[in-house]
């Protein structure tokens, strides 16, 4: 059969499924109606047998041979026949040596014999179209790949297993029950049966469940993207030295010249199973230097975006009245996420330490390393408090959050209307509208454009 005669979603696609870069092995995946017959054109087994004649879900040693009979690589071919595959289609996965020339040559053989390059997320998209997974599970795959913490990974794996999908299915089941009750009222219009009293509690329960799932959405986004810890303070307060001491390497330039750091400098580390980005910022002060002022503006932006702020002051320098005002404003605005830090504790103290904002500060020295362990404990404690607020059973993405918000608004309007009077015919209409939003969540009724937008964010080989 010609690949051209097949539909777009039946054609055999090929892509590298492992990351590009150094490593021992790479995995190339083919999937589609003709995936096995295409692979048989260039994978040669020692037994001379064709993959198409062998049992599904088996692994075979073979060689990749080009059109001139030259060996490209020795490989292991994983044979997976439809429908019991990830995509629901015939699939061949080729484990080869991770050399870009080898990978390119194998993919070229697949293309020569009738495959085409996969689009972003096309393997997962086919899994959705062939009812192997729903759209929520497909989105969970992307979260599993890009998880920035063990917590996000665990939640994403649970959603891949169907935890969120089952929750959505329960909402769908309750809405269908409400629609059935509403339409039953047409048949029992003269009977003394209060269908409204059976419908309203179900609707209110759905609204309550949605609110529960959404209430920590902002924190979920922070955790999903990784935590940001910004070092904020006046010029020459020792932020860069502290930054380097925490990271245990010279990432920032450290000098005695005030205003050395003119832009934000970032470095990522893993702490207690979470990805944390430390941000060294420009010092806060009045300046006529346009470049330096831009850096200061960036510092204030970082304070707003940060999950935790290390508010830094120099033990050996007195804070000016202007600096005290800026520190006070930052403290008043971001008090819940601030850890006050005094640097240069090895130097003689000045009246800076008497500022009330730093009464409970951690006094550190980047030179002698004093109290750096105490500062790290304070950071870990702040992170733990952030995680403790995550009461939602699911990690919602923006699409899911917005659709749930629309659904909640619709159901709230229905519940409010039912308090005064009930037109069951109109009620059935609005409940069916709400059911359509639920179907869009799982991907049952999603538009082509929306589907394209979702899978455009996936990597090519997934």
Would you give an account of this structure?
With 462 residues, this protein is α/β, with parallel strands linked by helices. The protein is 45% helix and 16% strand. The chain has helices spanning 35-39, 100-112, 122-129, 135-146, 150-161, 163-187, 195-214, 217-225, 239-247, 290-305, 321-334, 372-388, 398-418, 424-442, 448-455; strands at 13-16, 25-31, 43-44, 58-65, 71-80, 91-97, 116-117, 227-233, 265-271, 274-280, 308-314, 338-343, 362-363. It has a seven-stranded mixed β-sheet. Strands 9-10-8-11-12-13 form a six-stranded mixed β-sheet, sandwiched between helices. Helix 4 (135-146) packs antiparallel against helix 5 (150-161), helix 6 (163-187) packs antiparallel against helix 7 and helix 13 packs antiparallel against helix 14. It is flat, with a radius of gyration of 30 Å. Mean pLDDT is 84; it is low at 252-262 and 287-293.
What is this entry, summarized?
With 462 residues, the chain is α/β, with parallel strands linked by helices. The chain has 15 helices and 13 strands.
């Amino acid at each position: 059969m010609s690949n051209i005669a097949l539909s777009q979603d039946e054609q055999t696609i090929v892509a590298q499924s492992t990351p590009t870069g150094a490593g021992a092995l790479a995995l190339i995946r083919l999937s589609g109606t003709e995936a096995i017959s295409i692979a048989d054109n260039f994978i040669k087994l020692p037994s001379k047998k064709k993959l198409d004649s062998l049992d599904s879900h088996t692994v075979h040693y073979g060689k990749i041979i080009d059109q001139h009979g030259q060996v490209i690589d020795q490989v292991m071919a994983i044979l997976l026949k439809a429908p019991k595959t990830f995509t629901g289609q015939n699939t061949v996965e080729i484990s080869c040596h991770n050399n870009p020339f080898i990978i390119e040559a194998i993919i070229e053989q697949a293309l020569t014999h009738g495959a085409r390059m996969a689009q972003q997320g096309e393997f997962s998209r086919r899994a959705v179209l062939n009812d192997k997974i729903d759209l929520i599970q497909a989105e969970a795959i992307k979260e599993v790949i890009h998880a920035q913490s063990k917590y996000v990974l665990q939640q994403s794996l649970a959603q891949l297993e169907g935890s969120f999908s089952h929750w959505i299915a329960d909402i769908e089941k309750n809405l269908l029950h409400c629609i059935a009750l509403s339409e039953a009222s047409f048949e029992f219009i003269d009977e003394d049966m209060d269908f409204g009293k059976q419908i309203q509690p179900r609707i209110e329960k759905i609204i309550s469940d949605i609110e529960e799932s959404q209430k920590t959405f902002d924190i979920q986004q922070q955790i999903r993207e990784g935590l940001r810890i910004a070092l904020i303070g006046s010029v020459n307060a020792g932020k860069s030295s502290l930054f380097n001491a925490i990271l245990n390497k010279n990432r920032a330039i450290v000098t005695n010249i005030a205003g050395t750091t003119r832009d934000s400098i970032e470095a990522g580390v893993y702490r207690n199973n979470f990805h944390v980005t430390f941000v060294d910022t420009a010092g806060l002060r009045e300046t006529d230097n346009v470049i330096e002022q831009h850096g200061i503006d960036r510092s204030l932006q970082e304070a707003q975006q940060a999950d935790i702020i290390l508010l830094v002051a120099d033990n050996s320098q007195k804070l000016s009245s202007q600096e005290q005002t800026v520190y006070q404003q930052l403290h008043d605005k971001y008090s819940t996420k601030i850890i006050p830090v005094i640097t240069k504790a090895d130097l003689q103290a000045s009246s800076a330490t008497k500022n009330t904002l730093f009464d409970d500060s951690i006094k550190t020295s980047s030179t002698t390393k004093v109290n750096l362990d105490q500062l790290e404990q304070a950071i870990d404690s702040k992170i733990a408090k952030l995680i403790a607020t995550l009461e939602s059973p699911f990690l919602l993405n923006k699409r899911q959050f917005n659709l749930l918000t629309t659904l909640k608004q619709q159901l709230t309007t229905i519940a409010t209307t039912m308090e005064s009077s009930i037109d069951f015919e109109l009620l059935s209409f609005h409940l069916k509208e709400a059911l359509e939003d639920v179907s869009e969540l799982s991907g049952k009724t999603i538009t082509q454009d929306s589907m394209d937008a979702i899978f455009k964010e996936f990597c090519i080989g997934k």
